[in-house]
Amino acid sequence: MSLAGSQASPGTSGRGRPRSEAVERSIVEGVMKLLEEGVPLAELSIERIARTAGVGKATIYRRWSGKEELFVDVVRSAEPPDPELPGTSLRDDLVAILEQLRQRGLMTRSSALLHSVYAQMKSSPKIWAAYHSTVVERRRRMQIDVLRRGQRNGELRADVDIELLNDLLVGPMLLRTVMRPEAALPEGLPEQIVDALLEGLRPVSSR
To answer: Which of 42, 56, 138, 148 is 20 to 30 A distant from 198 in Cα terms?
Structure first.
């Protein structure tokens, strides 16, 4: 449940005290319980969370610096895991990345609670900034690395703007999940998007 790279691994803590996955799980579940009861994020305090989870406030602060980091971990716990990239080709890695986005879109649509949490996060600049820096930006860096590797391997033209290409890659999936919630997210959509892009972006000699 720890923020990527910002907290100690399970079993240890930054202060040398043992970590308990069961305790962390009870805290996260306590937050989810309060959200399911309709308590807005703005009204959730560390004291209230601790009372619901049956722990002391100090127990929470040993794991998270504040409720912003805790909320980010709560949302992350409900998301699909980061994709395992095959590493066999640029196409295969990009399809895996978009399939994770497709699964995330389906999950958000099917979970009224998760949809509500995302909406509330966007109205809370501190929480949204924490989520963006620890989740969104990390995944974006992974995508950029995959595209740059494909460019180095000759699977993409050397003159392609990688930053722009990344936007073109994830844009259609995000459009369907955020701006067009009625649009379908069928199986095979990641392959369609990737193949359409790569057809015009491969070096001429490799087509």
So the answer is: 138
The owner of tokens 């805790």 is 70
Six-digit token pair at 143? 């995508």
d(CA 3, CA 9): 10
Q: Which alpha helices (DSSP H) does the chain contain, by range?
A: 21-36, 46-53, 57-61, 67-78, 90-110, 112-122, 125-131, 137-152, 162-174, 189-201
| Residue type present at position 24 | E
- What is d(CA 32, CA 38) in angstroms, rounded to the nearest whole number? 10
- Report the predicted TM-score, pTM, of the whole model to 2 decimal places: 0.76
Q: How far apart are the first and last CA of the chain?
A: 44
Cα–Cα nearest to 67, from 43, 100, 99, 96: 43
